[in-house]
Write a structure and sequence with these properties.
Layout (H helix, E strand, L loop, with lengths): L11 H24 L4 E5 L5 E3 L1 E5 L2 E17 L4 E6 L6 E2 L4 E6 L1 H61 L5 H58 L2 E3 L4 E4 L8 E2 L4 E18 L11 E6 L2 E15 L2 E8 L12 E7 L4 E7 L3 H5 L3 E5 L5 E6 L1 E5 L3 E6 L6 E3 L11 E5 L1
């Protein structure tokens, strides 16, 4: 007799179907979990950096490197070209004003000086001859004037005498008329001779002035030529140290070529380069600080060079008060240049979190310090050490400032000690 066989409720097909459904539901749940803002990640406490928000003095500043330079440097350029004939000192020598440095030889300049001196001598000789001739002409004119005046006085005497005699009918009209004509003639001669003498005097004065001016111009040219020849001996323009001096015996130097420089040793300045991003925030009298041998010192901006090269511009700074002892030319100083005054602010230490968040949010720890949540924040100014907190955090809050490179989609961090 046959028995009915009961069919199993959980056969393999049904089990596989159920497993597939559960897997799908699990994926859906996981997807919802990770996209619904509840993602969570376990992190080791020793792999993150935690800091506390505090209130303190905040000052916006930038770090810059400055190079110590002499207070001033005077460049030595060749005013005339020539061959190096003699060197009196070597690079690095301490010089007094007027000390010779080296001597150049230039036969063309020396020959030009001789020719110029000859030209001046010839001009002077010609001027003296012309002056002598002018004086002789003046003497002759004055002698002629004396003769004319003598003849006029004689004609005047005869005229006055004949006038009386003619009135008394002692002489005839012909003799009287002759004395009148002679008197008028001599009178006119006096007038003309005076005009000639006056014009001669003016002409002589003008000629003497022109000769004097020509001589002075030639003499100035001679002095300039002598100076150029004198410049063949290079001398120190001020007291200081000779640097960048490059010359060898027999070497040719062209006019205008840089021969070296004199560094004035009465003081120092600091030249620094700053990123062009700050060019509108840099002004004279801004103060920077640096530390040397454990002591703090201050510098003040004296001059701003607005020309930008390779994205940077330069400033010259001077020491506030006495320069540090032992500071030397070429030394590099690490300077904190203040961009604002000190103010009270909430301070957040800098860290790698900023690269991923842009300062818009941060992980803040709960009171137990075991969990960190995302919170929105607002940051203001910054310096190399701190951000100024404008909102979202309070004094005493603890936050994670290390890198968030793998935390982009994470909402909570579970911190394991």
């Amino acid at each position: 007799m046959d028995r009915p066989i009961k069919q199993k409720k959980w056969n393999s097909k049904r089990i596989l179907t159920l497993v597939g459904v559960l897997g799908i539901l699990g994926l859906i749940g996981a997807s919802y979990y990770f996209t619904s803002g509840n993602s969570r990640l376990n992190v080791e406490a020793d792999r993150i950096s935690i800091v506390e928000i505090k209130e303190g003095s905040f000052q916006e500043f930038i770090p810059i490197n400055g190079t110590v330079l002499p207070i001033s440097s005077i460049y030595l350029d060749a005013s005339v070209g020539g061959r190096v004939e003699e060197k009196f000192v070597e690079d690095g020598a301490i010089l007094k004003q007027g000390d010779p440095i080296m001597k150049l030889s230039n036969t063309d300049q020396e020959l030009s000086l001789v020719n110029q001196e000859t030209s001046v001598l010839n001009l002077l000789t010609q001027s003296q001859i012309a002056r002598t001739n002018a004086e002789q002409v003046s003497i002759n004119n004055r002698n002629h004037m004396a003769d004319v005046e003598l003849a006029f006085r004689e004609a005047e005497r005869v005229y006055n005498l004949n006038k009386k005699l003619y009135a008394e009918k002692a002489i005839g009209s012909q003799e009287y008329e002759k004395s009148v004509n002679d008197y008028n003639y001599q009178k006119e001669r006096v007038v003309l001779t005076k005009q000639i003498l006056r014009q001669d005097s003016i002409s002589t004065s003008q000629k003497a002035l022109q000769d004097q001016q020509t001589y002075q111009r030639t003499q100035s040219a001679l002095e300039l030529m002598r100076q150029k020849v004198g410049d063949l001996v290079l001398r120190a323009p001020v007291d200081g140290q000779l640097t960048s001096f490059d010359a060898e015996i027999g070497q040719n130097k062209n006019a205008g070529e840089r021969l070296g420089q004199i560094d004035v040793l009465t003081g120092f300045k600091v030249r620094a380069e700053i990123d062009e991003h700050y060019i509108n925030r840099i002004f004279t009298d801004q103060v920077g600080e640096f530390t040397l041998s454990g002591k703090p010192y201050q510098l003040k901006i004296k001059k701003v060079y607005t020309q930008v090269t390779n994205g940077r511009f330069q400033v010259d700074m001077e020491f506030v008060g006495k320069a540090p002892e032992g500071v030397r030319r070429g030394q590099t100083l690490q300077i904190r240049l203040a961009l604002s005054d000190e103010t009270k602010a909430l301070l957040l230490a800098k860290g790698g979190f900023y690269q991923q968040t842009g300062g818009n949010w941060i992980f803040k720890l709960d009171k137990n310090g075991s969990t960190a949540y995302r919170v929105d924040i607002q940051l203001g100014r910054q310096n190399p050490e701190y951000y100024e907190v404008m909102g979202g955090l309070e004094v005493g809050d603890k936050v994670i400032v290390s890198s968030y490179e793998t935390y982009d989609k994470i909402q909570e961090l579970s911190i394991k000690n």
